[in-house]
Amino acid sequence: MLEIYSKEGILFVVQVDHISGEICGSIFDCLYDAGARNVQCFATITKKNRPGNVFLIDVGCEAEQSVEEVIVREIGSTGWHKVVTEHRHVPTQVVNREIEIVVGACSFLFFIEAKQTKGLKESLRAEHACCELLKEKIKSTCGTDIALRTIYAKVQTALLREETKIIFERIE
Question: 89, 120, 138 — which closes off a domain?
Fold first, then answer.
C-alpha cells in the first residue's frame, strides 16, 4: 500500500485573451522566479470565438503574493481565480547511476539522476535536466548533436534495465 501525503497549496487559474503565445511562453521564467512550483499554459477558445490561453499556476502559500505580482505585471491580468488546494503526493527518492556513454569512438562516464516513487521500481524516470546536461556533454565531448528525445528514451531504457552502458549512433 502506497503512503500518500498532503500539503496545502494554491492553484491560480488565469484566463488570457490579450497576449500572444510567444509572450505567454516568456512568462514561465518570471512565474518560476517568483516561486511557482509548476506552470502550465494551454490554448482555449474564449467568448466571441477569440483565441486565448489559460495558465494553471501551482504555488506554495509562501509565494502567493510574489506570483500574484507577476500575474498583474507580466500577464497583465486584472482578475484571476485562486483555488486553495490539497496537494497529494507520494514519497520519492533520487537515484544516481554512473553509466558509460559511447558515441562512435568517443566514450565517457556520466552520472544519471532519476526520480522514483519509493518501493516502485517501474516508476523510475530520468530527470529532464540530467538529460539536457548529457546532450550538451555529448555535443562538447564527442562533437555530435543527439536529439533530446533520443537521449531521454535511451537513458530511460538503461535505467529500467539496469544497464551500465548506453551506445549512441554518431551523427556527422
Answer: 89
Q: Containing domain of residue 147, as a range? A: 92-168
Residue 58 near residue 34, CB atoms below 8 Å: no
pLDDT < 50: residue spans in the chain: none
| CA distances from residue 133 to 104, 128, 136, 145, 149 in whole angstroms, order as listed | 19, 9, 5, 12, 13
What CATH number is given to the structural domain containing 49?
A: 3.30.70.1380
Grid coordinates of 168? 549512441
C-alpha cell at 19: 497576449
pLDDT at 76: 93
Write the burial class of residue 111 (CB in 10 Å: 0-12 exposed, 13-18 middle, 19+ buried).
Answer: exposed
Examine the domain organization and report whether 47 and 110 are in the same domain. Answer: no
- Shortest CA distance to 34 belongs to which of 8, 58, 9? 58
Provide the 3-class DSSP secondary structure of residue 82: strand
Per-residue pLDDT at 141: 96
Q: What is the pLDDT of residue 172?
A: 59
Asked if residue 152 and residue 98 are part of one domain, the reply reads: yes
